[in-house]
Write a structure and sequence with these properties.
Chain lengths: 212, 10
Amino acid sequence: MNIFRLAGDMTHLASVLVLLLKIHTIKSCAGVSLRTQELYAIVFATRYLDIFTSFVSVYNTFMKLVFLGSSFSIVWYMRYHKAVHRTYDREQDTFRHWFLVLPCLVLALLIHEKFTFLEVLWTFSLYLEAVAILPQLVLLQRTRNIDNLTGQYIFLLGGYRGLYILNWIYRYFTEPHFVHWITWIAGLVQTLLYADFFYYYFLRFIGGRGVE
Amino acid sequence: DDASDTKDEL
């Protein structure tokens, strides 16, 4: 564990806490894409299948449970909690996210490190996470203006994988044989998809107004 | 090598 990895995990944790804070306290999910949240729930469900079979550390297991619990509870809130569900703009959140799932599954069946059930699903979760933010970014463009909490959520979510890239660079130079092209390319694509958002986020941040 | 086997990242 290096500082970049820890910073990445803390940034990721902060992103889910910001979103849970927004939904739980102000009982609103305005501007949040349910489809992105559903994709993330699938990402964690397929990535952490080994949570009970391979123990890495208490920290690792704890964080997996946090990400699983938060992503599924956010989906539950947005789908079934009547006060929160009312603030979900279903008309705008129309990105065909199921069209992302199948290509990622096919790609995982074609390109993976090992052809085992767990490894293919784990690889699938990497590809899916890389594109999971798309419904949210499309919703953001449609709703134009978003509240600060949602902007902070997207910023932190985009930043965490960027910190992971620094972690991979660090590990590449400090650990022999640490080469994982699939993880690296998926992580790079994922971070690059946020480039446009980061650009506007910093512009507004400098301007001191909300994200438009 | 075995390091790559254990998925030690999230």
